[in-house]
UniProtKB/TrEMBL annotation, chain A:
Superkingdom as given in the UniProt entry: Bacteria
One Pfam family per UniProt: BPD_transp_1
The organism of origin for this protein: Falsiroseomonas selenitidurans
Domain ABC transmembrane type-1: 61-249
Topology in the lipid bilayer: Multi-pass membrane protein
Compartment(s): Cell inner membrane; Cell membrane
Keywords assigned by UniProt, alphabetized: Cell inner membrane, Cell membrane, Membrane, Transmembrane, Transmembrane helix, Transport
Annotated InterPro entries: MetI-like, MetI-like_sf
Family label: Belongs to the binding-protein-dependent transport system permease family.
Residue intervals passing through the bilayer: 59-87, 99-123, 129-156, 176-200, 235-255
Protein name per UniProt: ABC transporter permease subunit
UniProtKB/TrEMBL annotation, chain B:
UniProt-annotated location(s): Cell membrane
ABC transmembrane type-1 domain location: 51-254
Transmembrane segments: 56-76, 88-107, 127-144, 190-213, 233-254
Protein name: ABC transporter permease
Membrane topology listed for this record: Multi-pass membrane protein
Keyword ATP-binding: no
InterPro entries the UniProt entry points to: MetI-like, MetI-like_sf
Sorted UniProt keywords: Cell membrane, Membrane, Transmembrane, Transmembrane helix, Transport
Organism name: Falsiroseomonas selenitidurans
Family recorded in the similarity comment: Belongs to the binding-protein-dependent transport system permease family. CysTW subfamily.
């Protein structure tokens, strides 16, 4: 097939934008394993910076993973039942509740965090606990789980499925666990990947919510960017990429899979 | 168990979390400003200046991102060529990179040791550095917004009816005419939705500005400074509450205008 000038212009522009997005990532990854960034790659490759970062900031990685998994557990437990109720009810009340539950996404994290500190900053030891950060992450991530599951539920003939199961004598727990849950697994998977990814990278809220004892990965990164040499900051970023890029790829895969199944 | 009672029990945990960790904190935020806080931000010119630069960056981000995403999105949605999938994967890789990491990537690109600086030096020019300014922040927000906007535009472009375009062409419309009269009106709801998300994100996020460690006084940075350095809680609370209200309103309006396509 012959390609016209329009094709080559379009391709050139698209390549330019891809370069804009990818080159800084590559530069950062390379700087993280370069012995001396000022000299360049000729100074040799090293894992020294990665080891040093892990020794100083390994704790932030583990804390972030713990918070992300806890956020996932809570959003699964409260998000799936909520999505189910919202899918079964068409009334105005249900739409208002849905509207309310997704509101935290629309409000900047720094505002929510400041509110959390005002409301609960003085309650017991909560301020110093990682549970304080968890509360913020749950509020912010819940809408993503809710929407993801709700989208799949609304594409199903939920009522018909449940009627059929009921006619066969299934009780409500049997219907929910045996019929509803298996049918929304795609939405649950997509929502889960989203929640873990967002929680691992959450900064807008966590910068205010954290204390010196509860420093998460992104907060540690911000600290490294201002305080450490480029090689260390890049090595730290590399550790973050190693965590987040597989999650992002899985997310794209889950989304395209859900789309294929939905058609 | 009656259906209504079961529904109430199933949605209660999600509502409880929303009330306790979002609505109550936001209420506290609204009153913590007090008459003093709101009067101060309305009467002091520097808060107005900061509002102006915030809106300027957000509007610039939205315009540039929409232009890039429309060009690339239309190209990728309407052409097939080897490597298209890879290109799309690269363009959407940064989908959920946190703002703070994006800030660092801007430094890798346009900072003192950045790619642009090194290339301009190698070409015999001056060292070009613009990461730590308003244009650096703009670059970061555009970087942050491209992947998501691109996905929205492509989804909408794939739903356009190709017959409309053929009809326009057979009636003698030029390529530009087709773009202006057929493609853009067809994409308008998606562009409104995506644009609102760009705008709201660029208004409320501060990870990028924080990582650039610049003296850019966009609103979220001002809130952070007032709260942590000046301990000026009333002003920080008043600013946060108004900022939250504004981003929420932008998203709600756009959702109304685009028929529910906006998040």
């Amino acid at each position: 097939m012959r390609r016209g000038i329009g094709f080559w212009t379009g391709l050139g522009f698209t390549l330019l934008i891809s370069a804009f997005l990818i080159l800084p990532v590559l530069a950062s990854v390379i700087a993280g394993v370069t012995a001396n960034q000022f000299v360049g790659l000729s100074s040799g490759l090293t894992t020294r910076w990665l080891v040093e970062v892990w020794a100083n900031y390994g704790g932030t990685v583990l804390l972030s993973l713990r918070i992300a998994l806890a956020t996932l557990a809570v959003t699964l437990l409260i998000g799936i039942p909520a999505a189910y109720v919202l899918a079964r009810h068409a009334g105005v009340t249900a739409r208002l509740v849905e509207e309310a539950l997704v509101m935290p996404v629309a409000v900047p994290g720094i505002a929510t965090a400041l509110g959390l500190i005002l409301a609960y900053g003085a309650v017991g030891d909560l301020r110093a606990s990682w549970l304080f950060i968890l509360a913020g992450h749950v509020v912010f991530c819940l809408p993503f789980m809710l929407r993801s599951v709700l989208a799949v539920l609304l594409a199903l003939d939920l009522k018909g499925l449940e009627e059929a199961a009921r006619a066969c004598g299934a009780s409500w727990p049997q219907r929910f666990l045996g019929v509803v849950l298996p049918n929304v697994s795609g939405g649950v998977l997509a929502g889960s990947l989203m929640v873990v990814t967002l929680s691992l990278g959450e900064f807008n809220m966590t910068l205010l919510l954290h204390t010196p004892f509860t420093r998460t990965l992104p907060v540690g990164l911000a600290d490294a960017y201002t305080a450490l040499r480029t090689e260390m900051a890049s090595a730290y970023t590399l550790i973050f990429f190693v965590l987040i890029v597989p999650l992002l790829s899985a997310m794209q895969w889950a989304a395209s899979r859900a789309e294929r199944l939905g058609r | 168990m009656p259906d209504r009672l079961r529904a109430a029990l199933l949605i209660a945990p999600a509502l409880a979390v929303f009330l306790a960790f979002f609505l109550v904190p936001l209420g506290q935020l609204a009153v913590a400003g007090g008459a003093g806080g709101y009067t101060t931000i309305l009467t002091e010119p520097r808060y107005w200046r900061s509002l102006a630069s915030t809106l300027l960056v957000a509007a610039g981000t939205t315009a540039i991102t929409l232009a890039i995403a429309t060009a690339v999105g239309l190209f990728l949605a309407r052409t097939r060529f080897p490597g298209r999938g890879t290109l799309l994967a690269l363009l959407t890789l940064p989908l959920a990179f946190p703002g703070v990491v994006v800030g660092y990537l801007v430094i890798m690109l346009a900072g003192r040791q950045g790619l642009v600086a090194n290339i301009s030096l190698a070409l015999g020019g001056d060292r070009i550095v613009f990461a730590y300014s308003l244009s650096g922040l703009l670059l970061g927000y555009v970087y942050f917004s491209i992947p998501r906007t691109l996905l929205t535009v492509m989804a909408a472009a794939e739903k356009l009816d190709p017959r409309l375009e053929e009809a326009a062409r057979s009636l003698g419309a030029s390529s530009f005419g087709v773009l202006r009269d057929v493609l853009l009106p067809g994409l308008a709801p998606a562009l409104t939705a995506a644009g609102a998300i760009c705008f709201a994100t660029a208004t409320g996020a501060f990870g990028t500005a924080f990582a650039l460690a610049s003296r850019i006084d966009v609103l979220p940075m001002v809130i952070y400074t007032e709260f942590t350095l000046q301990a000026n809680l009333a002003v920080a609370a008043a600013l946060s509450f108004l900022l939250g209200l504004a981003t929420w309103a932008v998203l709600a309006l756009a959702r109304g205008a685009s028929g529910g396509a906006a998040a």
